[in-house]
């Protein structure tokens, strides 16, 4: 990669009006393993691939429940996500304490986004190196938000971030029309299929490397791991032959 | 820009030998790539409109609103780096709230523009920060009637000894645009972002200074201008976002609100029709 | 005068001696409000099957002096909450300002299709009251929050200067707690009976209470405000007058005032 004079810190614009340090931080997100999120009229689902450092080590945490109504999935620097998730937990509890109200998802998303923005306008700080998917249900129904290190946040119908996530996004775009009316089970299957698309050929979704988070109307956000997801993995991929195969020839994000 | 690479453009707050602050100019470049934003000051209100480019099919339609409300009677639309726009809005809201705490009245649009101009300017002064990567348009309706103070006890004299001048005119629609340098002007019609050139020339045709354009006409013109400005980046899809603010007697009752769906769709229909009409004309000319 | 700006405009030390700054010192511990100054009296409210009725008179008293006679002590928060204030009027104005800024913040997001409801607001206000009393600097008020909760059901609860909260199908503050509550409870003794009460009955009941309060509470007035909160919104009337008053009973009162026998 080239070095140029404008990429030393996040307080310098390039002549084109870009901030390279922030763009580099976005690259850190692409180093993380893939996570996807999908919403229907009634549910919000997160699914993630967990990595382990070596055969005998434990798997990395990818989905963090924040409050009883929502959780986040992360791609990138896990320690940055921990800082942000602690802040989110604090803010969510404060909302419940002072207003007896579950914090609206748009609200909590802008709060972390504003924090992230500060890190891109002051010297001596670095942008966060993590991307988040924030999914759950508030008074206005199910939501999915994407958060980027630049402080950009967007409400999505479906989203995938992390390594090779372009494949997942392609799957999601192709099945976009089905999500809105999908049942809880169908939505989870879509999330798992999208996740599978991003996997390299030699890898499989297993009960060890996959996490699923589900939130819904009148249903608390819950993280499912291990044996709890065995059934979903089985039913999703039993008819693998007939499932649409879009892996070949698709571009891989670099 | 011949001085690029001479080292004077590497840090904020540094002048080049010919007296330029390059980092501010580069911030302006960030604005010039953003979706077009415009504001129109009509005789009975202000319209703000934004060309919101759709960057992904997966985005939720109609969500991700980008024209923000400050206090109750003011709106801000910006073009450029989205997070910087939110920083700007959040400061504007703090300024408005602080003004209320101090004066027990809503902040006038001019005062808000002034304060935000000062705030943005500070970010050009130090090497430890970077300038804002946004140009923001602020539109508001300053109340023309005396508003009750919170929990008002009695109302005092309406004119004269109460310190009020009889027959004095105050309030009305106002529009300002604040640039990354902190510079701001008041406008009849303001445009920024990628399509600002064509938007500006369309705004100039409206003769806004005459003060004849009504708010509803303004909404339709705003929609049309955004559609015209979008011609330059036609390959990308976009959503039109529009807000307005009128007097207490007007459709928004002095509040800054989203333009109702029906009216927006009607304005969009007319905008598309006007564009097609233009195309026909050019086709005709070509035939000739 | 010397060159030091801080000495400009002050008496010269060489002529008048050094300034005795002990005058600026206050001795003893810090003191906050010990008693209210300008006060409003009772607020009464009752739930009915579709909502809540709440009322308070338009008087602010300065001690026993009827000082301000057009004070609005019922405050509309949004289309489904009204807050009624008893106690110190300047503290009420502070709280009103607080609620105003909260409302402005709530309306930043354009689609306000999930506004703060009465229960949210009551929780918030009770935290404010409790925080202030814990700072030994209470807001000298007793408030009633009337409106609809998250399930669009009638909601009525109070918070006072100590941060105490209480919810009931009928509530009254100040003198009303003694004089109006028993009357309200005759019609609405418990939560179940709320379903049997119509809006018209509830309004009549509250008006009756306001009249009794005017008869017996020397710090009350016959001009009052009344609000009805239902799903349809807030119907707030701020310029009502007590009707069908009868002071004939006053003739029979003995042992008070100037009397011959």
TrEMBL record, chain A:
Residues 6-28 form the Proteasome alpha-type subunits domain. GO terms for biological process: ubiquitin-dependent protein catabolic process. It comes from the Eukaryota. GO terms for cellular component: cytoplasm; nucleus; proteasome core complex, alpha-subunit complex. InterPro entries: Ntn_hydrolases_N, Proteasome_alpha, Proteasome_alpha-type, Proteasome_asu_N, Proteasome_sua/b. The keyword Hydrolase applies. The keyword Hydrolase applies. GO terms for molecular function: hydrolase activity. Gene3D superfamilies: Glutamine Phosphoribosylpyrophosphate, subunit 1, domain 1. It is found in: Cytoplasm; Nucleus. SUPFAM superfamilies: N-terminal nucleophile aminohydrolases (Ntn hydrolases). Keywords: Cytoplasm, Hydrolase, Nucleus, Proteasome. Pfam families: Proteasome, Proteasome_A_N. The 26S proteasome consists of a 20S proteasome core and two 19S regulatory subunits. Belongs to the peptidase T1A family. This is Proteasome subunit alpha type. It comes from Glonium stellatum. The lineage of its organism: Eukaryota, Fungi, Dikarya, Ascomycota, Pezizomycotina.
From TrEMBL, chain B:
The keyword Cytoplasm applies. Residues 8-30 form the Proteasome alpha-type subunits domain. InterPro entries: Ntn_hydrolases_N, Proteasome_alpha, Proteasome_alpha-type, Proteasome_asu_N, Proteasome_sua/b. It holds the Pfam family Proteasome. CDD domains: proteasome_alpha_type_3. One of its GO terms (cellular component) is nucleus. The 26S proteasome consists of a 20S proteasome core and two 19S regulatory subunits. Belongs to the peptidase T1A family. This is Proteasome subunit alpha type.
From TrEMBL, chain C:
It comes from the Eukaryota. This is Proteasome subunit beta. Keywords: Cytoplasm, Nucleus, Proteasome. The keyword Nucleus applies. The keyword Signal does not apply. GO terms for biological process: proteolysis involved in protein catabolic process. The lineage of its organism: Eukaryota, Fungi, Dikarya, Ascomycota, Pezizomycotina. It holds the Pfam family Proteasome. CDD domains: proteasome_beta_type_4 (cd03760). Non-catalytic component of the proteasome. Its main location: cytoplasm. It is found in: Cytoplasm; Nucleus. Belongs to the peptidase T1B family. One of its GO terms (cellular component) is cytoplasm.
């Amino acid at each position: 990669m080239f070095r140029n004079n404008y990429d030393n810190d996040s307080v310098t614009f390039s002549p084109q009006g870009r901030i390279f340090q922030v763009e580099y931080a976005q690259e850190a997100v692409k180093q993380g393993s893939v996570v996807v999120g999908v919403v229907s009229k009634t549910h919000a689902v997160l699914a993630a691939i967990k990595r382990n450092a070596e055969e005998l080590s434990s798997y990395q945490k990818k989905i963090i429940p924040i409050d009883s109504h929502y959780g986040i999935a992360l791609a990138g620097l896990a320690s940055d996500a921990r800082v942000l998730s602690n802040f989110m937990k604090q803010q969510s509890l404060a909302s419940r304490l002072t207003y007896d109200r579950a914090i609206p998802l748009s609200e909590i998303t802008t709060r972390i986004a504003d924090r992230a923005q500060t890190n891109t306008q002051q010297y001596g700080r670095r942008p966060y190196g993590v991307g988040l998917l924030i999914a759950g249900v508030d008074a206005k129904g199910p939501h999915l938000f994407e958060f980027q290190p630049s402080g950009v946040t967007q409400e999505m119908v479906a989203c995938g971030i992390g390594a090779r996530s372009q494949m997942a996004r392609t799957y999601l775009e192709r099945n976009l029309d089905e999500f809105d009316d999908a049942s809880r089970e169908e939505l989870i299957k879509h999330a798992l299929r999208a996740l599978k698309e991003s996997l390299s050929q030699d890898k499989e979704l297993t009960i060890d490397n996959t996490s699923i988070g589900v939130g819904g109307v009148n249903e608390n956000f819950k993280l499912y791991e291990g044996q709890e997801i065995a059934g979903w993995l089985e039913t999703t991929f039993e008819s693998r032959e007939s499932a649409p195969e879009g892996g070949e020839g698709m571009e891989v994000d670099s | 820009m011949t001085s690029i690479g001479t080292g004077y453009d590497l840090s904020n707050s540094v002048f080049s030998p010919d007296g330029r602050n390059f980092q501010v100019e580069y911030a302006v470049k960030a604005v010039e790539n953003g979706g077009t934003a415009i504001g129109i000051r009509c005789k009975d209100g202000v319209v703000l409109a934004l060309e919101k480019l759709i960057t992904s099919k997966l985005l939720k339609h109609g969500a991700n609103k980008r024209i923000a409300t400050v206090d109750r009677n003011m709106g801000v639309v910006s073009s450029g780096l989205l997070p910087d726009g939110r920083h700007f809005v959040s400061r504007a809201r703090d300024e408005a709230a602080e003004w209320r705490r101090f004066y027990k009245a809503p902040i006038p649009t001019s005062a808000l523009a002034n304060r935000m101009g000062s705030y943005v300017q500070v970010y050009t002064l130090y090497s430890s920060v970077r300038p804002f990567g946004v140009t923001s348009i602020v539109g508001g309706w300053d109340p023309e009637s005396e508003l009750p103070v919170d929990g008002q006890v009695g109302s005092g004299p309406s004119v004269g000894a109460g310190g009020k001048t009889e027959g004095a005119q105050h309030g009305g629609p106002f529009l300002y645009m604040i640039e990354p340098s902190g510079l701001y002007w008041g406008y009849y019609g303001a445009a920024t972002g990628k399509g600002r050139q064509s938007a500006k020339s369309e705004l100039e045709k409206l003769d806004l200074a005459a003060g004849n354009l009504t708010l509803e006409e303004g909404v339709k013109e705003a929609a049309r201008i955004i559609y015209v400005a979008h011609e330059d980046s036609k390959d990308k899809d976009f959503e039109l976002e529009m807000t307005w603010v009128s007097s207490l007697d007007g459709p928004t009752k002095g509040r800054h609100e989203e333009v109702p769906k029906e009216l927006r769709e009607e304005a969009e229909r007319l905008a598309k029709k006007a564009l097609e009409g233009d195309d026909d004309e050019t086709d005709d000319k070509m035939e000739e | 005068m010397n060159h030091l700006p801080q000495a400009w405009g002050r008496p010269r030390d060489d002529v008048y001696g050094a300034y005795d700054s002990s005058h600026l010192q206050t001795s003893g511990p810090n003191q906050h409000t010990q008693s209210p100054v300008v006060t409003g009296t009772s607020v009464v409210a009752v739930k009915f099957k579709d909502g809540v009725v709440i009322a308070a008179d338009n008087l602010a008293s300065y001690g026993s002096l009827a000082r301000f006679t057009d004070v609005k002590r019922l405050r509309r928060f949004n289309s489904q909450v009204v807050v009624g204030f008893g106690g110190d009027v300047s503290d009420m104005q502070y709280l009103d300002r607080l609620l105003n800024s909260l409302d402005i913040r709530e309306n930043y997001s354009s689609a306000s299709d999930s506004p703060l409801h009465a229960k949210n607001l009551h929780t918030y206000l009770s935290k404010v009251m409790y925080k202030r009393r814990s700072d030994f600097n209470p807001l000298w008020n007793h408030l009633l929050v009337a409106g609809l909760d998250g399930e669009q059901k009638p909601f009525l609860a109070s918070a006072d200067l100590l941060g105490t909260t209480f919810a009931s199908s009928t509530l009254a503050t100040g003198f009303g707690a003694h004089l109006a509550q028993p009357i309200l409870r005759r019609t609405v003794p418990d939560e179940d009976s709320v379903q049997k009460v119509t809006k018209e009955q509830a309004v009549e009941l509250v008006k009756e209470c306001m009249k009794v309060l005017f008869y017996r509470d020397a710090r009350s007035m016959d001009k009052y405000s009344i609000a009805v909160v239902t799903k349809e919104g807030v119907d707030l009337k701020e310029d009502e007058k007590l009707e069908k008053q009868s002071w004939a009973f006053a003739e029979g009162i003995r042992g008070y005032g100037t009397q011959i026998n």
